[in-house]
Automatic annotation (TrEMBL), chain A:
Gene3D superfamilies: Periplasmic binding protein-like II (3.40.190.10). SUPFAM superfamilies: Periplasmic binding protein-like II. Residues 25-45 are annotated as: Disordered. Residues 1-23 form the signal peptide. Residues 27-43 have a biased composition (Basic and acidic residues). PROSITE patterns: PROKAR_LIPOPROTEIN (PS51257). This is Putative aldouronate transport system substrate-binding protein. It comes from Anaerobium acetethylicum. Keywords: Cell membrane, Lipoprotein, Membrane, Palmitate, Signal. It comes from the Bacteria. Pfam families: DUF3502, SBP_bac_1. Residues 446-512 form the DUF3502 domain.
Automatic annotation (TrEMBL), chain B:
It is a multi-pass membrane protein. PANTHER family: BLL4140 PROTEIN. It comes from the Bacteria. This is Putative aldouronate transport system permease protein. Signal peptide: none annotated. One of its GO terms (biological process) is transmembrane transport. It comes from Anaerobium acetethylicum.
């Protein structure tokens, strides 16, 4: 009897232990019930089951209530066209940087992903997260993207496709038109020299208005005058630590930007303005972005590096001011700008061909693009009266209450044919070509991407040095005569020369194959 | 033969422990395999095992720059200071709190000193900014109203060792105090009664009863902190100085350095290398410290 009791207890233990172990692993099978439902409904004529494409839709944080209705509407287009159904997967932007790697490492189903929003395609390729899609790119896609396709090409293989076909970026200044009229401030049509800046800022100061001329920001990212200097950062427009090409439409020599006279001039100007009280004095630490400072009436003007969507109307709406734009630098196309938003296919995708076919359809079918961007007409958006291609939220709805598309960051389709949201106006479509291959200046290095793997240590060290010195310099908080030499020395110690040398040799090799 | 049977006797107990053992194995030991990433050029599509092996190359960036010395010094220096102050101030506060007789006031004090510990470092950084801001800071308002020139705190590094230490103590002291207080409460009243009968003063009671009996707790907490000597409170060193470049020589620690250096590339191998290095140093420190304790007060050593 006693023996039996012991055996029984052992068996019980085993069962307990087993249930605990298996409890952990029964997750996978019940993951997507949606798949089975859609599969039943959409089996097509040729007998082949439609492939279910999982598409990453990056947004701010909402979960869309009507996402399934939108999916169905999309399926009505995609099933007859390319025999696939879609599943939209919303990913909040704060998770986007890690979501793809987690999904690939865990081999979860994911096909079409946003690249460049937070992590550049080249980094993703280096980490093995993107699939080679060279053979699937259709002739139409090739024609649409033209030279832009090179930006997503690494070692001769295509890994990403530009999401925005007009990715040129301008540098400009926006100023408060009402204030300018009230105080009689004359702002030139275009700004090119440091005297032009000085001229505007001095007028603002002398006019006696309560606002400062401008905010120099917190020094994170490139300062506007650096953009104005017409640079190609060769993939690092933020810290410019790979070296830069100045006037990239005619030059291909990489130099150390921080050693240049232009940089010294810029720092001297900013220091001078700070001393004269032209700029918001504590912009370095107060935690406001330059746009915030503009919106709360602290400054007269704000600088901005603008892509096509960031129009005057858009920024006026954002800041609540009546803004006027002044060009600092015409639109420029570089690898970095093209790659700020692009599409890639996850390396664990079961059907990369289908994913690319979908992209192909997306860029040609404006109806599909509008569905993806804005949802279903009537319930999620409404055409604005008197406009061609402008939409707004339907009556009584706003970004937070609409059932789909309120806060999407991803962009689907051809910018030229798809709708735009208010406050943009039809003028948007007139200016769009200025940002594309036709209108924008093209960097000679467009398509080149620096492979940092050989100098990864130096790059990390250089970026850390830039983070240490640059913000205080470009925000005019320290005397450049004292700090720049120290900065340059620290950069050299960190190995910037090796980085530039490696970068140049890669660039030269790349130019030869072009 | 006898030994064998004894082993068999414990089988049910082992099986009873099986879930726990499995949990430890899966949760704490299997991930150790991930340490390999620090020595590889990690590629998601190849996986951990197949990614190319690169030896110590991933560690280079930690040692190659002039920052290597600064970040090591800052990390260890601040940690030693914090350990010392946390212990001394924590024990003192715990003793004071224990002497408060009124129940209501005791609870109020206890809550008041614990409250900052529950705040996020981002909130703390803004609280600090309210005091230290250039234009809007309270200290600068005070200085200018007294006719003194304002101080640009976020650009003057001399103040920061003091500011960081103050902020750290203000925020973390409550937590240590509660632990010390718990052990003081556990000390039997009869010791104090006996001491009082013998005519011992309050100070003598503290010195000869409370502190010696607190020793095991102190040693344990210090040993545990020693195990974190090469890690720093990222929030404290990144958020509170508002990521200001001018202050890096006194605020840059190994965590903030790694964060800044890899912000752009997000390289998982390089960051694993940093974490590996930190863990290795902490492991060595805790072993050494434990051995020292073993030598001087064997019964209080952790292992």
């Amino acid at each position: 009897m006693k023996k039996w009791k012991r055996v029984l207890s052992v068996v019980m233990m085993l069962i307990m232990a087993l249930t605990m172990v298996t409890g952990c692993s029964s997750k996978k099978s019940d993951e997507d019930p949606a798949k089975n439902v859609t599969d039943d409904k959409t089996a097509t004529d040729n007998g082949e089951e439609p492939y279910e494409l999982v598409i990453e839709v990056v947004n701010i944080s909402q979960s869309f209530a009507d996402i399934e209705a939108v999916q169905e509407a999309i399926n009505e287009i995609t099933v007859p066209e390319i025999n696939c159904t879609v599943k939209l997967m919303t990913v909040p932007i704060f998770e986007q940087g890690t979501r793809l790697s987690m999904m690939v490492a865990g081999n979860e189903k994911i096909d079409l992903v946003n690249t460049g929003l937070l992590t550049s395609p080249s980094t993703l390729v280096g980490e093995g997260l993107l699939a080679d899609i060279t053979e699937y790119i259709t002739p139409t896609m090739k024609e649409l993207a033209g030279d832009l396709l090179a930006a997503g090409t690494f070692d001769g293989k295509v890994y990403s496709y530009p999401a925005i076909l007009y990715p040129g970026t301008v540098a400009c200044l926006f100023y408060d038109k009402d204030l300018a009229e009230q105080y009689g401030i004359e702002v030139p049509e275009a700004i090119s020299k440091s005297e032009d800046w000085e001229n505007i800022l001095k007028q603002v100061k002398d006019s006696g208005m309560s606002a400062y001329g401008i905010s120099l920001g917190d020094g994170g990212g490139a300062s506007i005058m650096e953009f104005g200097a017409n640079l190609d950062g060769l993939g690092d427009n933020n810290t410019l630590s790979y070296g830069v090409v100045v006037d990239p439409e005619e030059n291909t020599t990489i130099t150390n930007w921080y050693e240049s006279e232009d940089f010294a001039q810029l720092c001297n100007d900013h220091y001078d303005w700070m001393q004269k009280g032209y700029c918001v004095p504590d912009s370095l630490t107060n935690g406001y972005t330059t746009i915030d400072s503009m919106a709360n009436g602290e400054c007269f003007a704000v600088t901005s590096s603008n892509s096509v969507g960031m129009s005057q109307a858009y920024l006026s709406n954002l800041t609540g001011k009546n803004l006027e734009m002044v060009m600092v630098r015409e639109a420029l196309l570089t690898t970095g700008y093209v790659n700020t938003q692009s599409w890639g296919v996850a390396s664990n995708s079961e059907n990369p061909e289908k994913a690319v076919q979908f992209l192909d359809l997306l860029f040609q079918n404006a109806e599909l693009a509008n569905l993806m961007n804005y949802g279903i007409e009537g319930s999620h958006y409404a055409k604005v009266d008197g406009t061609q291609n402008i939409v707004a939220f339907p009556e009584g709805k706003d970004a937070s209450t609409v059932g789909y598309g309120g806060d999407i960051i991803s962009w689907f389709g051809d910018t030229k044919t798809a709708f735009q949201r208010t406050p943009n106006t039809d003028e948007f479509f007139d200016t769009i070509d200025d940002y594309g291959l036709e209108g924008a200046k093209k960097s000679l290095c467009l398509g080149f991407t620096f492979d940092t793997s050989k100098v990864a240590t130096q790059v990390a060290a250089v970026q850390s040095v830039v983070g240490e010195y640059k913000p205080t310099l470009t925000t005019g908080n320290v005397n450049p005569d004292e700090v720049i030499p120290e900065f340059i020395k620290a950069l050299k110690d960190a190995g910037i020369d090796e980085v530039i040398k490696e970068n140049q040799s890669q660039l030269d090799a790349w130019l030869k194959t072009k | 033969m006898k030994k064998n049977r004894q082993w068999k006797k414990w089988i049910p107990i082992y099986i009873l422990g099986l879930p726990g053992i499995l949990y430890l194995l899966i949760n704490n030991y299997m991930p150790l395999y991930g340490l390999l990433i620090a020595f590889k050029d990690y590629n998601y599509s190849l996986g951990v095992w197949k990614s190319p092996f690169v030896g110590f190359q991933n560690f280079e960036y930690l040692f190659k720059t002039k920052d290597a010395w600064v970040i090591t010094r800052n990390t260890i220096g601040y940690n030693l200071l914090f350990i010392l102050l946390n212990t001394v101030i924590g024990v003192a506060l715990a003793i004071f709190l224990n002497e408060v007789r009124k129940k209501v006031s005791k609870k109020i004090y206890q809550t008041a000193i614990l409250l900052p510990y529950l705040m996020s470092m981002v909130v703390v950084s803004y609280l600090a900014y309210i005091f230290l801001g250039d234009r809007t800071g309270m200290i600068n308002h005070l200085l200018t109203s007294l006719g003194l020139p304002p101080v640009k705190f976020y650009m003057t590094k001399t103040y920061w060792p003091l500011i960081l230490t103050f902020v750290n103590e203000w925020r973390n002291i409550g937590y240590g105090t509660i632990i010390f207080l718990a052990s003081i409460v556990g000390i039997s009243e009869s010791y104090y009664e006996a001491a009082e009968l013998d005519g011992a003063t309050k100070w003598q009671q503290i010195k000869l009863i409370t502190v010696p009996l607190l020793k095991p707790t102190v040693i344990m907490l210090v040993t545990l902190s020693m195990g974190n000597i090469f890690r720093s409170d990222f929030g404290l060193f990144y958020q509170v100085p508002r990521n200001q470049g001018m202050l890096f020589s006194v605020t840059n620690t190994i965590d903030t350095y790694v964060y800044r250096a890899l912000l752009q590339s997000g390289d998982i191998s390089l960051s694993s290398a940093a974490a590996f290095y930190q863990s290795a140093v902490c492991f060595i420190t805790i072993i050494i410290f434990n051995n020292i304790i073993k030598k001087y007060s064997k019964e209080n050593a952790l292992f």
